[in-house]
């Protein structure tokens, strides 16, 4: 059984409590786009989270076009992607907090020096860097070890596409079986699972009444173990290191 030497972390609502802030900004822009098309529906940040959690803004806009049957020119899409990035970063720099207990676990891992660590996110690189910097996590990750599906790839994409995880594995020089990742969303977990990476499902950022349902959904996708609080991380990691870790097949 390959030894685990690499830990990947999703960023939004896994390391940093950023989704509510980000989706507030996204809702404003999504509504602006819908209004410009004469579509009467409007979104709140909360509704967007329910429909699109785990996707980046580009992925959301592609889904929105499919749902409401309209098309955006590439130039217009890129303009809104940039606009969203700026609005979200401003909110994060003002208000973002770390997920409860995440900083303590990162500090322990860094002190142990047993694992290499990287961030693997759907969000734009500038946003991810701003998030981890605001909450004091940037010191745990080398600058070139923060990966973004929106920025780091030749062709931008979003989770659940496994491309960003496959890219991170390649850059880090690791195989999926010597890697573990932590994800909080269905699209994020599916991205990691499709890349063959054993996955810890973190549900601590969800409201208490939603945690059990989310845990079931993540387990149904193929997540190996559920973590409700970051204090459980060492036990989850131990479970994966000592249990049978087979490469998970594509779904």
Automatic annotation (TrEMBL):
<dbReference type="InterPro" id="IPR036412">
    <property type="entry name" value="HAD-like_sf"/>
</dbReference>
<dbReference type="InterPro" id="IPR023198">
    <property type="entry name" value="PGP-like_dom2"/>
</dbReference>
<dbReference type="InterPro" id="IPR044999">
    <property type="entry name" value="CbbY-like"/>
</dbReference>
<dbReference type="GO" id="GO:0016791">
    <property type="term" value="F:phosphatase activity"/>
</dbReference>
<dbReference type="InterPro" id="IPR041492">
    <property type="entry name" value="HAD_2"/>
</dbReference>
<dbReference type="Pfam" id="PF13419">
    <property type="entry name" value="HAD_2"/>
</dbReference>
<dbReference type="InterPro" id="IPR006439">
    <property type="entry name" value="HAD-SF_hydro_IA"/>
</dbReference>
<protein>
    <recommendedName>
        <fullName>HAD superfamily hydrolase</fullName>
    </recommendedName>
</protein>
<dbReference type="InterPro" id="IPR023214">
    <property type="entry name" value="HAD_sf"/>
</dbReference>
